[in-house]
């Protein structure tokens, strides 16, 4: 990995990158849903103001990846790891793993005990990464996303 990669906390400077990096993967496999529009168009209100956090991966100061830690409404979970997107031009270089590890560390720092995520089984590299990080599949959580066909948890 390049020594010019760093992960920083989201600021409004990265608002467009947060939206674009997520829309790239969503539109490649699925469609933009109402919950996407809400979160991607106003991450400050939907994520940050509710006690969440967004990490931005910068490669040579260009945003190439994002991942959010969203305060979770699901009973028994503290946070949801969500809205992870890595630019197609740098996928396969470990940036998603670094972002996920950063978000997990942030959740631990915030005192979280259980981290939740939802995804789709067609996203095989993502599911594989989540499993390598220790996430296990769970059942019974209701998702606001049509595309979600797998929910996972990580005990911290």
| Number of DSSP E strands | 7
Shape: globular
Strand neighbour order, sheet with most strands: 1-2-3-4-5-7-6
Helical residue percent? 25-40%
Radius of gyration: 14 Å
Indicate how many domains the architecture comprises.
1
- Assign the structural class, choosing from mainly alpha, mainly beta, alpha/beta, alpha+beta, or little secondary structure: alpha+beta
CATH class: Alpha Beta
CATH overall fold name: Aminopeptidase
CATH architecture: 3-Layer(aba) Sandwich
State the CATH superfamily name. Answer: Gcn5-related N-acetyltransferase (GNAT)
Largest sheet: 7 strands, mixed
InterPro entries: Acyl_CoA_acyltransferase, GNAT_dom, NAT_camello-type
Keywords: Transferase
Domain N-acetyltransferase: 16-156
GO molecular function: N-acetyltransferase activity
